[in-house]
Amino acid sequence: MKCGGPLPAEAADRVVTCPFCGVVSNPAPSVVEVERIVTVKGEGVGTSCPRCAAVLNESAVGKHRVIGCGGCGGLWLEHPTVDYLSANNDVELATAVQKRAGFVFRKLDCSALLTCPFCKTAMDRRSIEAPGYTTYVDVCKLHGTWFDSGELRQFITIFADRRANDPGEPMDVKIPEEGFFTDLFGSLRRLF
Questions:
Q1: 145 and 132 Cβ atoms separated by less than 8 Å
Q2: Residue 8: its pLDDT value, please?
Q3: pLDDT of residue 142
Q4: Torsion angle in degrees (nearest 10) through CA of 182, 134, 100, 141
Q5: pTM to 2 decimals?
Q6: Which end of the chain is more exposed for a tag (fewer CB within 10 A), N or C?
Q7: Which has the closest alpha carbon to 180: 85, 106, 107, 71?
C-alpha cells in the first residue's frame, strides 16, 4: 500500500481496499503447474526417430507393425516383418510398407551410427550387397531394423532377385539370439 499500512489476510485471495489510504489492491497472480499428457491413438508411438529426432508414427499392415518417420522418410520394422519380407514375395505387403516409409527429396547424411528408438542401445550397421551396389541397414538385436529412406526398396529388390535366381531352395532366415543379419549373412555365404 502507498501508506505502508498492513493489508488484511484476505488480500492474498481477492481485491481489497486499504482502510487507511483507500488504495485498491489486487492479489498477486497465482502460478499453478499442470502436467498434461496427450496421447493420440494411431499417431505417434511416443518415441523419436533415430535419424532426425522427429516423432515416429505407427500403423499396421495386416499383422505387421510399421513405424515410420515423416521427417526423414525412415522406417522401423520388427524382426518378424523383416524375416517375412526377405523370405516371401508378398508384393502387396511390400508396396503397403514402402508407402508408409515416405520419401525425402533432400539428401540425408546417413553415416552417423544410430541407437535403437526403443531401448536406446547402439545398433549394428549391416551391409547387404548386390551386384553393382551395397545398402546398409541398422539393426537392434532385440527390437528390429531401421531402414533409411530408399533402403527398404533396395532390400526388397535384393531379396526378390535372390529368390528369382534360386527359386528351388527356400532361404533359411531366422533371428537367432545374435541377431537376424548374423544368420542371414551366414545363409547367404553358404549360397555363394
A1: no
A2: 75
A3: 92
A4: 20
A5: 0.61
A6: C
A7: 85
Please give the C-alpha separations between residue 92 and each of 8, 61, 74, 152, in angstroms, as whole numbers. Answer: 75, 10, 20, 14
d(CA 1, CA 24): 8
What distances in angstroms separate CA 181 from CA 124, 140, 176, one per listed residue? 10, 10, 9
Q: C-alpha grid cell for residue 85? A: 519380407
- pLDDT 10s digits, 108-136: 777 888 999 989 999 999 988 888 778 88
Strand 44-48 relative to strand 55-61: parallel, antiparallel, unpaired? antiparallel
In this structure, what are the phi and psi dihedrals at residue 119, rounded to the nearest 5 degrees?
-105, -5
**How many CB atoms lie under 10 A from the CB of residue 18?**
18
**CA–CA gap between residue 31 and residue 68 (Å, rounded):** 39
- Taking 80 as the threshold, does the pLDDT of residue 63 lie above it? yes
Q: How far is CA 120 from CA 50, 69, 117, 137, 185, in A?
A: 9, 17, 6, 17, 25
End-to-end Cα separation, the chain, in angstroms = 91
16-62 confidence digits (pLDDT tens) = 777 777 777 766 655 555 444 333 334 445 688 898 888 888 888 88
Calculate mean pLDDT across residues 56-83. Answer: 89
Residue percentage of the chain with pLDDT more than 70: 71
The single-letter code of the amino acid at 153 is: R
